[in-house]
Design the sequence.
């Protein structure tokens, strides 16, 4: 049944027989032996191709070819390990960075929030002209909750700090006060115990709390009997009723350890003018965000008219909760992803050019194989296989590298900030990231493979054979190869311009006039137990004692206290009226700080008029205030503010303050926000339980911090001391500084990599071109061309490429920098200095890269060059 | 000059027609590849030019389909050669394909020749 398969040898013999028979007949027609054989062969056509096709008959042709191509590609790599290693390294790095940054994008922007049906969760708040989101007052919250029909549930949260009683003294802890249905609105259930019961969030309800998972682990050693235990917060006993799941996180609450129902309100919080509660709502089925917004706006307007709050100019804001959680990081992540992808593009183009250079030096090989019967498709598939193999290895290297890069980038985010970015835990290699890696791997493969296809299909076999590399560099190479380099240079310019703008922004940010001297300034945060220090007199006495004791420490020049350190945030704000003038339509707030007499002098703030506070400005005297220049300019233009009086509602009571001093602006808010008006009240007249201590030191402030902590604990072991840092470290750790530094360094890194790759690419093109044109240059020199003319020839080529890249690059960077305007600070998108520097840098580096090949060209020995023929 | 013109007037074989031509040639008796090529060329008044590489692949294809059989023999002028002959199955196939082809040619002729059934008038 089965015939023995016919051998290739048998087929070859048959063809041989054919040729002989044909020759015989031609001889009979009168041709001589030699001519007959020649004619017979011509008439037959490509015998080798026929034999090849016979051999390949009935096989899984593509698989066969693929295996052979792969084997060949591996052999090629092994023969030229330098090329392979460079290509894989360049691709791997480009991919690694891109995939790692995509993992952040995925975790932050693509993964849904870890709540039930998170797309229906909205952040529902007030808004005013200055802030698109502005917190609610508690009475407003109750009315919004009662009146709305858009939300199936509506709740609020508000961060706070408590003094936690522990065996070793007191510790300040971060907690979140929430309304009773908060967790149900999110769709989160405790893993132990239960959620808040009805009534626990009513005013005067029982004191219950829930533990965060990490608190349960760190403070209670995963004890399952923790339910029913008592925890002392600010000296009040709370009963633990539940533990939240490990996966639960709520970014706006940061690393809150305890979750407490809102059942006690401070005197302020009863007021409709005290805005401290952030709202979330779960949208009912079938209700759209815009209709919910319309309803809330109507409710807000009605309430504000009813209670005479129109002067705040408030309205409602309804945005997806995800917007609140990741809105801040979106621009920076997208910028970084674009940077990484541009870098990857350069890497691909670079590898593509390398492949191209190699395909160029394999022209003869290709021509010979073509002549021996390889079809164009087979030749192309050979190169495509090599490209795919490179891309595959590069992708594999990139995926490995990305795991490392993710860890590295994750570590760059400081702990404080990481607490507000719970998505950082989700940064990993998962299905999304791997799909992305595969996609960009294919993209890289397409580029590395497309270049030789382009190159080969336009090659004439005959020319390839006849042209042993004589004459000037192949025109196609020059066109294609150099266009690719221009692309690289364009990308390098765009990234460099971006990095320059971000770097300049960072510089501007760190050189914002602070209005005080941050050097040699040590700071600690202090909380005092309200149970021990009940009366204002006791608190004031403690303040004085603390200042007296820390001032006595060796190396301390001066010391002071403030309710909030500068350069942190424009919070703890106040609404003021000027006494004796018509009520102002206020939609702007002023920063309010309570400071001890020594505080402003210790900061080395500049007193413009009047005086600082003294120990005499205590609770027994009428209220006094110091204001900053911005406030003076805003409310007292062209007049002396000293002696003027302002009023506000302090602790629920209308209070009048006489202005006794004006200082130059101390930058209270974040670095990237322009200075707000600010008012300072004496701490002795407005005592409270938490403040920060600032100490002016003679030497390095860091060394002093431990002894400050010791001294405070000597005064009272139940005082909590936290966040001991130098002022400079505090400023460096602010979100504004970190975000700007993070983006500037990363994009800077991309830019350096892009510059190196681009210039290496340029060098490659020129070196190759000089290599190909050695004979041409030899002839030129032999015919009398000066060395300088040869230099000019090569440098001119480099100059043309660089100039083109630079021109297009600068135009592109104008466009891209407009896109990243939101990340710039104190610098225009079209900053001429930066663009000039970029242009200069690229020109110098390109010239340097061009110099080596130019010198090699100029030192061509015409005799050698022509003899090599 | 003449060869050049001939080359231009040659017609590349339509897909599938080579098989039919081979079968037709072998009706006359067993023949080797070179003979088949010559025969096709001669009988088509040198209009058809058979690419020899394709011819041998076609022969192999027909052999695989058991339409023809082959064995090595000796030619008239004492050369070793591989002789092909029709199998019974090949004969059937030839009849079938010839009918098919004639219907096709007639139909083409009807359209192109505007009613003249005898398409060719060389």
Sequence:
């Amino acid at each position: 049944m089965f015939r023995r398969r016919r051998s290739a040898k048998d087929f070859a013999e048959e063809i041989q027989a054919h040729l002989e028979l044909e020759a015989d007949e031609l001889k009979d027609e009168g041709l001589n032996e030699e001519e007959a054989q020649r004619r017979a062969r011509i008439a037959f056509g490509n015998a080798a191709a026929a034999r090849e096709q016979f051999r390949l008959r009935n096989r899984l042709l593509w698989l066969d070819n693929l295996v052979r191509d792969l084997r060949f590609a591996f052999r090629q790599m092994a023969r030229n390990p330098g090329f392979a290693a460079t290509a894989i390294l360049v691709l791997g790095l480009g991919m690694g960075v891109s995939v790692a940054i995509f993992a952040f994008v995925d975790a932050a922007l693509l993964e849904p929030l870890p709540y039930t049906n998170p797309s229906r969760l909205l952040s529902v708040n007030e808004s005013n002209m200055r802030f698109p989101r502005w917190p609610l007052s508690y009475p407003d919250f109750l009315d919004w909750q009662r009146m709305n029909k858009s939300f199936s549930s509506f709740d609020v949260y508000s961060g706070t700090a408590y003094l936690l009683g522990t065996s070793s003294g007191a510790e300040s802890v971060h907690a979140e006060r929430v309304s009773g249905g908060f967790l149900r609105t999110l769709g989160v259930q405790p893993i132990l115990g239960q959620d808040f019961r009805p009534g626990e969030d009513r005013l005067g309800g029982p004191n219950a709390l829930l533990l965060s998972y990490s608190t349960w682990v760190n403070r209670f050693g995963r004890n399952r009997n923790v339910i029913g235990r008592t925890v002392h917060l600010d000296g009040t006993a709370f009963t633990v009723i539940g533990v939240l799941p490990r996966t639960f996180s709520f970014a706006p609450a940061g690393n809150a350890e305890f979750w407490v129902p809102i059942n006690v309100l401070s005197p302020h919080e009863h007021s409709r003018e005290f805005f401290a509660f952030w709202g979330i709502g779960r949208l009912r089925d079938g209700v759209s965000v815009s209709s919910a917004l319309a309803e809330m706006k109507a409710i807000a307007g009605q309430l504000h008219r009813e209670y005479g709050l129109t002067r705040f100019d408030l309205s409602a804001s309804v945005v997806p909760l995800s917007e609140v959680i990741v809105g801040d990081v979106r621009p920076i992540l997208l910028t970084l992803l674009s940077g990484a992808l541009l870098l990857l593009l350069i890497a691909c183009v670079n590898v593509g050019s390398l492949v191209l250079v190699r395909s160029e030096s394999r022209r003869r090989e290709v021509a010979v194989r073509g002549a021996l019967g390889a079809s164009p498709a087979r030749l192309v598939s050979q190169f495509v296989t090599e490209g795919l193999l490179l891309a595959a290895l590069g992708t594999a290297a990139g995926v490995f590298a990305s795991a490392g890069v993710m860890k590295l980038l994750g570590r760059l985010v400081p702990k404080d900030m990481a607490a507000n970015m719970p998505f950082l835990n989700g940064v990993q290699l998962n299905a999304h990231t791997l799909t992305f890696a595969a996609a960009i791997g294919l993209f890289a493969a397409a580029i590395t493979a497309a270049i030789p296809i382009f190159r080969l299909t336009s090659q004439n076999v005959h020319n390839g054979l006849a042209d042993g590399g004589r004459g000037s560099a192949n025109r196609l190479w020059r066109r294609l190869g150099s266009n690719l380099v221009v692309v690289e240079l364009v990308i390098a310019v765009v990234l460099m311009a971006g990095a320059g703008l971000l770097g300049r922004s960072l510089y501007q940010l760190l050189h914002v006039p602070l209005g005080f001297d941050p050097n040699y300034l040590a700071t600690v945060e202090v909380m005092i137990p309200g149970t021990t220090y009940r009366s204002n007199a006791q608190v004031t006495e403690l303040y004085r004692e603390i200042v007296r004791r820390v001032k006595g420490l060796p190396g301390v020049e001066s010391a002071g206290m403030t309710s909030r350190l500068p350069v942190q945030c424009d919070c703890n704000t106040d609404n003021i009226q000027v006494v004796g003038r018509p009520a102002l339509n206020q939609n702007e707030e002023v920063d309010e700080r309570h400071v001890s007499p020594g505080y402003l002098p210790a900061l080395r703030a500049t007193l413009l008029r009047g005086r600082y506070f003294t120990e005499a400005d205590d609770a027994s005297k009428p209220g006094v205030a110091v204001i900053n220049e911005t406030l003076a300019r805003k409310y007292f233009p062209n007049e002396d503010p000293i002696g003027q009086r302002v009023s506000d509602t302090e602790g629920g009571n209308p209070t009048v303050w006489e202005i006794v001093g004006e200082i130059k602006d101390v930058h209270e808010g974040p670095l990237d926000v322009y200075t707000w008006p600010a008012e300072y009240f004496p701490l002795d007249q407005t005592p409270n339980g938490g403040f920060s201590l600032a100490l002016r030191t003679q030497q390095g402030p860091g060394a002093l911090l431990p002894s400050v902590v010791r001294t405070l604990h000597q005064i009272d072991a139940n005082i909590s001391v936290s966040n001991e840092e130098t002022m400079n470290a505090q400023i460096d750790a602010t979100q504004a500084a970190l975000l700007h530094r993070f983006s500037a360094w990363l994009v800077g890194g991309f830019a350096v990599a892009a510059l190196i790759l681009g210039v290496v690419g340029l060098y490659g093109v020129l070196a190759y071109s000089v290599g190909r044109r050695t004979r041409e240059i030899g002839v030129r020199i032999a015919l009398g061309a000066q060395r300088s003319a040869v230099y000019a020839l090569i440098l001119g080529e480099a100059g043309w490429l660089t100039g083109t890249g630079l021109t297009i690059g600068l135009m592109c960077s104008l466009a891209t920098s407009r896109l990243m305007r939101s990340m710039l600070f104190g610098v225009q998108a079209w900053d001429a200095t930066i663009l000039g520097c970029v242009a200069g840098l690229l020109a110098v580096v390109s010239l340097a890269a061009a110099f080596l090949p130019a010198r090699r060209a100029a030192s061509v020995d015409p005799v050698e060059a022509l003899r090599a023929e | 000059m003449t060869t050049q013109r001939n080359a231009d007037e040659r017609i590349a074989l339509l897909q599938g027609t080579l098989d039919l031509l081979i079968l037709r040639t072998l009706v006359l008796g067993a023949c080797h590849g070179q003979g088949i090529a010559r025969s096709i060329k001669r009988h088509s008044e040198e209009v058809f030019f058979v690419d020899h590489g394709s011819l041998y692949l076609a022969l192999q294809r027909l052999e695989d389909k058991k339409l023809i059989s082959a064995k090595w023999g000796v030619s008239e002028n004492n050369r070793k050669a591989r002789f092909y002959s029709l199998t019974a199955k090949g004969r059937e196939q030839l009849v079938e394909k010839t009918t098919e082809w004639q219907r096709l040619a007639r139909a083409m002729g009807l359209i192109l020749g505007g009613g003249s059934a005898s398409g060719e008038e060389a």
Chain A is about 50% helix and 15% strand. The mean pLDDT of chain A is 84. The first strand of chain A starts at residue 121 and ends at 127.
